[in-house]
Amino acid sequence: MDYIISVLSTYFDNADLTKWIVLGFAFLSAVAFTASIGILIYNLSNPLKQRLHTISGPDHAHRQSSGHKKIDKTLESIEKYVTPKSKTEQINTKQLLMHAGFEKTSALTSYYAIKIILTLIALICAVIATNFFPELTSQKVVVYTLLAVGTASFIPNIVLSKLAERRTKALRNAFPDALDLLVVASEAGLGFQAALNRVAKEIDSISPELSQELQLVCQKARIGISIPVGLNQFIERTGLSELQGLVSIITQSVKLGSSMGDTLREYAVEFRDRRMQKAEEEAAKIGTKMIFPLVTCIWPGFFAVAVGPAIVKVLDMFAGR
Domain Type II secretion system protein GspF, which positions (predicted)? Predict the structure, then answer.
């Protein structure tokens, strides 16, 4: 804090004015951070709850839609200032946000706004923390501040990657069960679209995320989008690239008029085998992964118990001489 005040004092003659400027900047950063957290929680709201609020009454729905519009306008106004200029980075970030379940158009702006606010908060906290260590030199203060800022700007990337990975894994684990239900519904006489709609409703108790994605495919099919196109968009949103074979099989079955039930049954067996092979691969890695906790946690304690008494006796023997 004193270092920043000393730097700003070169531009302002009044020391009290400099302190008030720094405190004002810290206050504005805290307010912006709180607003960003509120926007994030708002974007994370459950779509089912939004639907229930809409059904509850026209007045409430009107107020909710007006609130949505105000927030969207605010995010649109700051979009050009917070989002990066690189189109490649924007596309990659949007893809990760979709895989994590954030499909709103304002999700990208909210994500980068949170990154900027966290960076500012980390900068202020680092400066305040270094104030309690007056023995630190100016170079160390700058280095620690840059480390704090870099860490704060990198944390959202890690969190987003973990969220996307966890959601994709949950969808991948639940999809074989959905395929089995789809086979049963197709063999019961339902068409593919009707069977998919029924599966989307039944799978909700097991995987709400997969249920929402399949319902979205059915909704797009109702407005005229073909099933293969809707499934390709489903793969793009979820990151389940291994389902590309399913789209090809369904397209081929529609063109040739072959049995959809037999085709889906064969693919369900193949997809389940892939999941089993993935589980076996992860199980084979356990032995290697256990080396690190064994070496760092268990072996030191074992040597302390097994070799410790002998070392104590040797030391006592030499001390006695």
Answer: 179-307
